[in-house]
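Async update (no meeting this week)

Hi team, since we skipped the sync, here's where things stand on the single-chain job. The sequence we agreed to prioritize is pasted below, unchanged from the tracker. I ran it this morning and attached the output directly underneath so nobody has to dig for it. Comments welcome in thread, and please keep replies under the output.
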Amino acid sequence: MCRILSAIQLPIDQQQRDRLIKRLDDNMLSFTELSNSILQVPVAALTICRAAGEAVRRRDGDVLNLEQACNLLGTQRIGQLLRALPVQPLAEQPLGFRQMLSISEHALTQARGLFGQRMARLWQELALACLLFMSPSWVLVYQRPELFREWENWHLGISAGKGRAPAQLLGSEQLLELSQQLVEDWNLPLWIRQGYRSLIDSRRLMVKALHIARDSEHPRDQQMALDADTRLLRWLTRPDNSLLMANGIAVGAHHDWSAQHTLRWQQFIALYLGCSLTEAQSATHEHAVTSAQNQATQADLWLPAQALLWPPGARRQPTTLVPPAPKTARRSNATMKAGSTATRPTTPPPADAATWRRQCVLLKQTPSPFKNLPSLLDCSLLALSQGLGIPASWIALYNGRNQQLVVAAAQHDDSDLRRLGKELGDARQESWDWLRSNPCLNLDAQAQQQLSNRLPASLKTLLANQPGHLLPLLSNGRLIGMLLVHSGTTLLSGKRQQALLKTAECLSQALVTFSSRRQA
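Output:
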């Protein structure tokens, strides 16, 4: 999964890129001024920081701040990186992705107001680390926008009655470990890496600190408790904890200023700064207003300062409560090995022939209208889920380097990401003739039993003993991928199966057209 997410290029708005490139062309511009400009464009800051981190990896070094990164790379290399970023208008970027960037920018404003003066000598280090702390989630939400909606709805109580929380971005064990691995792979600044280590490895110390912070009405007792535990005091006063607090309050405020989660971070901030809880709360409110003023250019973003005028306990409805898009999991051409669990498909959603036709027309267009492979796969999954009412589907693409069919995208009712990157076998071997020779293999329980000796264990796991269809994706008779769908409780028949065959044909054509454009 880390290799999948690392291969994704986040987009930048044309005006943002033009503004930064114009700054690069200014011969009078210092690296300090340039880094301050880049810090205002989170995606550009991440791109440059990752490039600098890769450059110093061979020397076992660290890039601590953006000015160091700019000095290391030089203006020519920075210009190349900026021009290589995909351009996408803000209005076309997923709302959840832009909202995640907004939360990180809010966190940076909180850090500037709460800790900037106190840590003036370390401000550049704190600023970059605070802004990029949640960057792994930027990539994940850009790849799977529906995760943000699920996470937001759960925190707002929209889906709390289902008995389990959906894929949360910051409360998930899996996500914390994934984020930690990504920041290590990207060699992001040490403070970010230490922050994730604290969240994962120093939980007992954090719980102790939060317990002491709750007694905000007795500061003397708090200080005595800290003095009695030198290990806790040493951990609490580490500068990298400031970025945890800034991001924690930004996430909490995004959902509810009155929530217990938000209060805990305010108490933590009060303990860290040695001030009263009232002072800490007033400061976080003030900095939220400043952040809102800085971000007011995007009218569709939710800014937590808007809720400060509401009565205590009032809760907003999420801005993303629109008819939900299919739960789509995607990956790039990068491959990896991962575990898998069975998925049980939900009741088939209603079919929409108009949606199916629109997506197929897009898939057949020449030249390819898709900017990247994930958007192409999304179009296919939308044709299957909303167009044909198929509850669960997987697209596997053939990776010539590894000679493996690899799960590249999925739409299903389980938000578990571990299926992505799953290797299904070398489908170009003779032992896979059963797939290549049949345009649509109908797999009821009896057919699965008959093919049991031929089906690899990984493919059986995806089938999960549910009725389904396997369709090869071919180009000039050569296999380039495979489509697997779960059709609900029974197999598809008649016009719906014909439409499924047509969808596979359109997907194959779209993959060939897209590949040709990339090679041109």
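Quick observations from my side:
Strands lie at 328-330, 392-399, 404-411, 423-425, 441-443, 468-475, 478-486.
Residues 494-519 form the longest helix (26 residues).
Reply here if anything looks off.
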